[in-house]
Amino acid sequence: MKILERASQVLQEESKAVLDLIETLDHRFETAVELILASKGRVVCTGMGKSGHIARKISATLASTGTPALFLHPGEGVHGDLGMVTSNDVVLAFSNSGETSEVISLLPSLRRIGAKLISVVGNPSSTLGKNSDVVLVVCVDKEACPLGLAPTSSTTAALALGDALAVCLLDQHKFTPENFAVFHPGGSLGRKLLLTVENIMHSGDDNPIIHKGATVQDALFVMTNKGLGAANVVDEEGKLIGLVTDGDIRRGLDSGCNFLVWSVEDMMTKSPRTITKDKLAAEALHMMEKNQPRPITVLPVVGYDGTSLGLVHITDLLRRGIV
């Protein structure tokens, strides 16, 4: 069989294995969700071999979507790691055959501990299935492997069912993007949802300020010194009244006049777009990109009384992963 034909066949067979699960969903899946929701502990995912990889992935998905979870290697479990399981926990065990010896060996201790057991198995009449509080059946017609040996369709289906479980729990927990960001501070979504303008803006001595009455040349010195390509123009009370940018300077050069001696008030953009420091950095980027008639690269930061607090440059946002 040609390479692309084989690849297409594998994808078709694994897709069918996942879609066939829809017909098997029943009250047992609902019971599994309710059992986990009622638990005061964590979901302890376990499995051996390829099923262990699926269990580890599902534990990570659960943990990142609002359901405390961890992975327990069954081989390590029988040598002491079962000590991490409590009576408040729910164990989610993956085994296609339901007879995986390392997983079966956990059963007596799990019963003594008092943890509830949900199994994801291909055979509900297996030892694991018979000893579970809830059995979720993942039975595939055949593996995508042409030899029928390597776990392929069965692990894909088990992974999909585990994801369905995690998403249903996420939904029941009313999990929000903000909650997700708390658990992913290093990811792009975390940066978008957690970073505020205050975290990024140039403030204090780095705030490029020029006072009204100063000349364009004075503003140019400030802009060059701060390196932001713009300067906030303020009145006697420190309140923002305008913004001068390097674009304004270029347009002054095109005028052919001795614009450097002009008052900065004659060149500045009056009442420019501004943002407050408590706003999300992502909102600042949105304001810059959607500004009409053309996008802008800097955004003055003001207090609620109009005081100039700083400046945000688009490169600072992009450097921090706000895209």
The count of helical stretches stands at 16
Largest sheet: 5 strands, parallel
Any idea of the CATH class of the largest domain?
Answer: Alpha Beta
- The CATH topology of the largest domain, please? Rossmann fold
What portion of the residues fall into strands of 2 or more residues?
Answer: 15-25%
Q: What is the share of helical residues? A: 40-55%
* Total number of distinct structural domains: 2
Q: Tell me what the CATH architecture of the largest domain is.
A: 3-Layer(aba) Sandwich
Q: Order of strands in the sheet with the most strands?
A: 2-1-3-4-5
The number of E-state strands comes to 12
Q: What is the oligomer described by this structure? A: single chain
The assigned structural class equals alpha/beta
**The CATH H-level homologous superfamily of the largest domain:** Glucose-6-phosphate isomerase like protein, domain 1
N-to-C CA distance = 44 Å
Q: Segments where pLDDT lies below 50 for 5+ residues?
A: none
Mean pLDDT across every amino acid position: 91
Task: Kindly provide the radius of gyration, computed on alpha-carbon positions and rounded to a whole number of angstroms.
Answer: 30 Å
Secondary structure blueprint with pairings:
Elements: H1 3-24, H2 27-38, E1 43-47, H3 50-64, E2 69-72, H4 74-77, E3 90-95, H5 101-104, H6 107-113, E4 116-121, H7 127-130, E5 134-137, H8 153-172, H9 177-183, H10 188-194, H11 197-200, E6 202-203, E7 209-211, H12 216-226, E8 230-234, E9 240-245, H13 246-255, H14 264-267, E10 269-270, H15 281-290, E11 298-302, E12 308-313, H16 314-319
Parallel strand pairs: 1-2, 1-3, 3-4, 4-5, 7-8
Antiparallel strand pairs: 6-12, 8-9, 9-10, 11-12
